[in-house]
Amino acid sequence: MAKRPSVQEILEAARRGGPAKPAAVPESAPAAAPIEEPTHSEAAEVAPAAPAAPARPAAPAGPTPSSLGRPLTLKEKLAAARAGGAAAAAPAPSPPPTPSAPPPAAEAAGSEATPARAVPPPAKPLGRPLTLAEKLAAARGGGGGAAPAPAAGPAKAAPAAKAAAATTAGAPRTLPPLDKITDPKDLAEALRQTGARKDREVAAEKAAAAPARPAAKAAPPKPSTVLPKPGKPGAATAEAPDHSSRRGFFLGPLFVTWIALAWTSFAAGVLAFTGMLGRFMFPNVLAEPPSTIKVGEPGKFDPEDVNERFKAEWGFWIVRSTRYDGQDIIYALSTICTHLGCPPNWLAGEQKFKCPCHGSGFYVTGINFEGPAPRPLERFKVSLADDGQIIVDKSQKFQQELGQWADPDSFIAV
Ligand code: FES
Q1: Residue 159 has pLDDT above 80, yes or no
Q2: Is the CB of 77 under 6 A from ligand 1?
Q3: Residue 38: its pLDDT value, please?
Q4: 372 C-alpha vs ligand 1 centroid, how far in Å?
Q5: Mean pLDDT throughout 175-197?
Q6: What is the mean pLDDT of residues 57-81?
Q7: What does the DSSP 8-state code read for residue 158?
Q8: What is the number of the ligand 1 atom nearest to the C-alpha of 360?
Q9: What's the rounded Cα separation, in Å, for the pair 132 and 223?
């Protein structure tokens, strides 16, 4: 089984222009040409492209874009660079390259690798074979990179290639589709451009959607379902108040109810005060008992007797006696002592009225005879009703000292 060539072998083969051969055969190892160790700068420049080189041996002559119908891959460009290195690796038999006449092999390789633009010839003859970095730069189109200045050395080829890349990166490049990109830098650039394009699309969508928001807000408001205030028939046709919240919907009528209740209470208080004032201005009618009372027929009263049934309630005695002037009469004596108004008591055993306050004594006829009482007891008017009953009228009094007991209204003859 053939051993895969190493990186050094591939580089050496690229310099020589031939395909890489593995150095695993012991017999051919001594016969192989001594491998020229690349300088530190060359190794640093080649390092990114080195892993792709040993993957498969490069073709002796690289394919052309016209033959493939697609852009050259990095590997194909590397193969083309190898072909150019082979031409440059043998400067002795061919004349040194000049600015006007580039090496035929390099020109052929350059024309095949980059058909769109020809690789310019080096400015000065190098006097040495081109390094791999220089070849790569020449293959990518950086014409100045393929002709490094002899005085600057190979280490200055990298800045020249970077400057060339910078000049091309200043303007947006046209990249092939993502599935056909093999260069990591191109792939990164394509991804960056794709991301930027998506960002622009998102920004454009946001800008297009931004004016739609005011249109959505300008939708017609929902109709309000607020009911009119109760107790106002005229307000049914008027415009209903705008209660923006449910709390206002419930608290509004409640607040109105409280105000109506307060005003009602105030009006009731005013009316009550007015009534009490009118009652005060007009005095009450005295709820006194009637001044006349029927005490019964004259035959119900016993002779020489004092009836005390009406003393407590009406304040008089009904007396039937013949002791005043020998005539059997009925009269009504007041129960008020003529001294200071105390009610005397009837003492049936002593046949006298005795005042408990100061000891005044009155006969059954009402004439005072002891104590401080200055005058006899008073009589009330008596008369006979249509039904034959005796009517006592307390509104009229008869005094004995005034001779009023002789009045026929002061007694009833039996
Ligand atoms: Fe009757 Fe004074 S009140 S004696």
Answers
A1: no
A2: no
A3: 43
A4: 6
A5: 81
A6: 63
A7: H
A8: 4
A9: 82
Q: How far is CA 215 from CA 206, 210, 365, in A?
A: 15, 10, 119
| Residue 375 Cα to ligand 1 middle (Å) | 11
Per-residue pLDDT averaged across 22-31, rounded? Answer: 44
Q: Determine the Cα–Cα distance for residues 143 and 164; give it in Å rounded to an integer.
A: 8
Cα-to-centroid distance, 224 and ligand 1 (Å): 91
Q: How confident is the model over 190-231, as pLDDT tens digits?
A: 888 888 889 999 999 988 887 656 555 556 666 656 665 665
Q: Is 306 in the pocket of ligand 1 (CB under 6 A)?
A: no
Q: What is the pLDDT of residue 383?
A: 94
Euclidean distance between CA atoms 148 and 299, whole angstroms: 175
Contact 137 CB / ligand 1 (< 6 Å): no
> If 0-12 CB within 10 Å is exposed, 13-18 middle and 19+ buried, where does residue 207 land?
exposed
Whole-number pLDDT of residue 379: 95
Q: Is the CB of 338 under 6 A from ligand 1?
A: no
Question: Facing residues of 397 across strands?
Answer: 380
Q: What is the mean pLDDT of residues 295-324?
A: 92
Q: What is the DSSP string of 286-326?
A: P-PPPSEEEEE-GGGSPTTEEE-TTHHHHSEEEEEESTTTS
Q: Above 90 in pLDDT, residue 35?
A: no
Handedness of CA 403, 406, 411, 414 (dihedral sign): positive
| Ligand 1 pocket test, candidate residues 358, 368, 377, 378, most atoms within 8 A of CB | 358
**Ligand 1 contact, 373 CB (< 6 A):** yes
